[in-house]
Design goal:
25% of the residues lie in helices and 21% in strands. By secondary structure, it is α+β, with helices and mostly antiparallel strands. It has a single domain, classed as 2-Layer Sandwich (GMP Synthetase, Chain A, domain 3).
């Protein structure tokens, strides 16, 4: 019998920690997602979060960082996303 581990068995030490590090950051992240869901892509008639256009969302202190994946004709969505996050009282700036 070989002495290697099966690739189909998940190791318990590789599972991510499901408990959030800071509950304030998690609440702010959910607030940011809620604001970004108000930004609608007009051609597809759906919000940018559900379309998978928002990636790598991070909240650090009073700043929101994320990547917005869009086509050439959708450049206005970046401005709409930044203005939507401007409605958050704690958000000083959104970096897209």
């Amino acid at each position: 019998m070989s002495n290697h581990q099966s690739p189909f068995v998940r190791n318990t030490y590789n599972t991510p920690n499901l408990i959030p590090d800071n509950p304030v950051v998690e609440i702010r992240k959910q607030d940011a997602i809620h604001c970004l869901k108000r930004v609608i892509e007009p051609t597809l008639n759906n919000n940018i979060v559900d379309l998978g256009m928002v990636r790598n969302l991070r909240v650090v202190d009073d700043y929101v960082y994320f990547r917005l994946y869009h086509g050439r004709h959708q450049g206005v969505l970046q401005e709409h996303a930044q203005s939507a996050l401007g409605d958050l009282s704690w958000c000083k700036k959104a970096y897209v």
